[in-house]
Every structure is written in structure tokens, then in C-alpha cells.
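Project outcomes to date are best conveyed with an example. Our students and postdoctoral researchers have been running inverse folding experiments weekly, and each run begins with a structure described purely in C-alpha cells. The record below, which covers 221 residues, was selected by the lab manager from last quarter's runs and is presented without edits.
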């Protein structure tokens, strides 16, 4: 099973890299052939090259993060309120949270919550509301990110956490993602002894739950 997973991972990664590389190769080849070096044409080429290089760089960073995760430290303590507020600062978002202390890597945990929030914003229509809530459930702290977007079909609710998996390939590609965001959220959750899953939402839209172990004592501030 591990072998099959690795093979799929490599195949998908190669496929993802091939598209921007093919665009670069074609555009540069055309530019050379046409010999049209007017500023407008040159700027257009540069814009395309820059866009594709940015896409490749983002993918490399995400892949490196996924593979280097095991080496990260996880000894910090942070308050659940801080964690949630840091993600909510990015957008107009409704937040309510009960306090508790979390142990782990603050930067990675922030990134996990931010990825969920960014997806909620990215896949929802403009002007809709994203809701983040945090509550304690015994030894667990649960962060719920809910949106009013298209939602995720139940049959795919597990698969979206696989690296490179996208529900709607063309739409997600347009929005700039390689399908690594949720894989990273899952890896970060598991690295901290927690979990992440998509839940059936009460209304339309998606609902993600990030479950992290929490400490018993009062939170630091
Ligand atoms: P991407 O970089 O494509 O956003 P992710 O790993 O973050 O990759 O998400 C995987 C796929 O799950 C996305 O391509 C999208 O199809 C779907 N998805 C993730 N979050 C949401 C959401 N909040 N609403 C609807 N679809 C979502």
C-alpha cells in the first residue's frame, strides 16, 4: 500500500510540474521564433513566465513542507484564542472560541487553520460568510471552519485530503492551488496527535473540523 501511495504521489507530482513547464517551454520557444522584442510583447512573455515560475515555486515550498514536517519542533504552548484569531485576521470572518492551551508548533498550527480558512474564502461566492468556531470537547479542542460555498460531495470527503486531489480540477487550478493545502493540514494535524475531517454541513457549503489535543491548565496570554 505504501509503495502504491508513493508511486501515485510521484506520478501526480510529475504531472503537476509538467503543465507549467510545458507552458514555459512553448512560450519561450514562440518568443524566440517570432523575434518580436517590442516592449509590449516582451512584458507579456515576462508576465507569463513569472506566473508559471511562481506556481512552481509555491508547489515546491508546499512539497518541502510536507516532507520536512517530521523535523519540526512541537514544544510550544499557545492559546486556542490566539490561534483562531490569527487566521481570522485575514478576512472578515465571524469567530467565537472557548479558551484552552494547545501544545505544538505554533507556526504550523496557524498554517493549518489558515489553509482551511483560505479554502473557505477561495471556494465561496464573494460576499458570503465564513464562520470559525472553537470549542473544547474533553481532552480535545475542535476548530470548525464552515462556509457557504458549493460544499464537497460526500463520496469525496476523504479523498480531498490526498496530495494533489482536486474536486473540480479546472476550477481549483484557476484559483491557483496544486491540491496540497489539505494534505498539509492533515499532516500537521496528525503530527500533533490530532485529526482533520470534512463534515456534513447543516445548510449548503463545507464544514471542516480540526481536532487537536488540549492541555488541562488555563491558557497562556
Ligand atoms: P487546492 O490548492 O486545490 O485548494 P486543497 O488541498 O486545499 O487544494 O483542497 C483540495 C480540493 O478540495 C480543492 O481543490 C477543492 O476542490 C476542494 N475544497 C477544499 N476546500 C473546499 C471548500 N471550503 N469548499 C469547497 N471545496 C473545497
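After processing, the design step wrote out the following sequence:
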Amino acid at each position: 500500500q505504501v509503495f502504491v501511495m508513493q508511486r501515485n504521489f510521484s506520478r501526480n507530482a510529475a504531472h503537476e510540474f509538467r503543465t507549467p513547464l510545458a507552458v514555459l517551454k512553448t512560450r519561450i520557444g514562440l518568443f524566440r521564433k517570432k523575434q518580436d522584442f517590442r516592449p509590449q510583447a516582451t512584458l507579456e512573455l515576462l508576465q507569463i513566465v513569472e506566473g508559471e515560475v511562481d506556481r512552481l515555486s509555491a508547489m515546491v515550498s508546499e512539497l518541502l513542507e510536507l516532507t520536512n514536517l517530521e523535523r519540526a519542533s512541537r514544544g510550544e504552548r499557545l492559546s486556542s484564542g490566539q490561534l483562531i484569531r490569527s487566521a481570522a485576521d485575514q478576512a472578515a470572518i465571524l469567530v467565537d472560541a472557548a479558551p484552552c492551551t494547545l501544545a505544538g508548533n505554533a507556526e504550523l498550527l496557524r498554517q493549518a487553520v489558515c489553509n482551511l480558512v483560505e479554502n473557505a474564502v477561495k471556494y465561496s461566492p464573494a460576499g458570503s460568510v465564513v464562520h470559525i468556531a472553537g470549542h473544547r470537547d474533553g481532552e480535545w479542542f475542535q476548530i470548525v471552519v464552515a462556509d457557504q460555498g458549493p460544499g464537497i460531495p460526500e463520496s469525496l470527503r476523504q479523498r480531498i485530503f490526498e496530495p494533489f486531489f482536486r474536486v473540480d480540477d479546472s476550477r481549483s487550478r484557476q484559483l491557483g492551488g496544486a491540491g496540497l493545502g489539505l494534505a498539509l493540514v492533515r499532516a500537521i494535524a496528525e503530527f500533533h496527535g490530532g485529526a482533520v475531517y470534512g463534515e456534513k454541513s447543516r445548510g449548503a457549503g463545507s464544514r471542516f473540523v480540526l481536532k487537536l489535543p488540549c492541555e488541562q491548565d488555563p491558557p497562556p496570554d
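The pocket of adenosine-5'-diphosphate is lined by residues 119-120, 123, 147, 149-150, 152, 160, 165-168, 172, 177-183, 206 (CB under 6 Å). The beta strands are 76-79, 94-97, 101-104, 131-137, 140-146, 195-199, 207-215. The training component of this project remains on track.
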